[in-house]
Specification:
This protein has helices at about 10-25, 35-40, 45-60, 85-90, 115-130, 135-140; strands at about 60-65, 70-75. It has a two-stranded antiparallel sheet. Helix 1 packs across helix 3 (about 45-60). It has a domain at about 10-95 and about 135-140: Winged helix-like DNA-binding domain superfamily/Winged helix DNA-binding domain (Arc Repressor Mutant, subunit A, Orthogonal Bundle), CATH 1.10.10. About 20% of the residues are buried. The longest helix has 17 residues, at about 115-130. Strand 1 and strand 2 form a beta hairpin. It contains 6 helices and 2 strands, in the order αααββααα. The chain is mostly helical.
């Protein structure tokens, strides 16, 4: 039996932020969607998503409108929002401090473990990919997501 190794362990809130933004990116430009509909389509917890969307609105990635026809919409085209923009908006910092697989705590360049350099290279590549990938790029990978109303 082969195990899957997953090195990226982003906080749940960060994952929900990206997933919610991908769902909104699937809508017509400037279409406002209710939080309830986004939460339902993505199977995301509504109350937690509300807090996350407030952070994304403060960061200028979402617009919110109250009242009839209101909800949330992307503040700019999906091709102009990078995945790292979303991550940085909801997370104080992208996880730079990793826990070493082989030792308690983190390893460093001063005392690297046998995997240290490979993990550092992988994290750089992943960060660069997140900086280059837009919501528009991500929408194609979300084809199995339930569409919003």
């Amino acid at each position: 039996m082969q195990a899957n190794v997953r090195l990226v362990r982003l906080p749940l809130g960060t994952r929900y932020a990206v997933q919610g933004m991908v769902l909104l990116a699937q809508q017509r430009p400037s279409q406002y969607c209710l939080l309830e509909d986004v939460a339902k389509a993505g199977k995301l917890p509504k109350n937690f998503l509300a807090k996350i969307f407030q952070d994304l609105t403060r960061a200028g990635l979402l617009e919110s409108r109250k009242g009839r026809g209101g909800g949330y919409a992307l503040s700019r085209p999906a091709g102009k929002i990078r995945l790292m923009d979303i991550i940085e908006a909801v997370q104080d910092h992208f996880p730079e401090q990793s826990h070493c697989l082989l030792r308690p705590g983190a390893c460093s360049t001063d005392k690297p473990c046998v995997l240290h350099e490979s993990v550092v290279v992988w994290e750089r590549l992943m960060t660069e990919k997140l900086r280059k990938t837009t919501l528009l790029d991500a929408v194609g990978d979300a084809s199995d997501a339930k569409a919003l109303k």
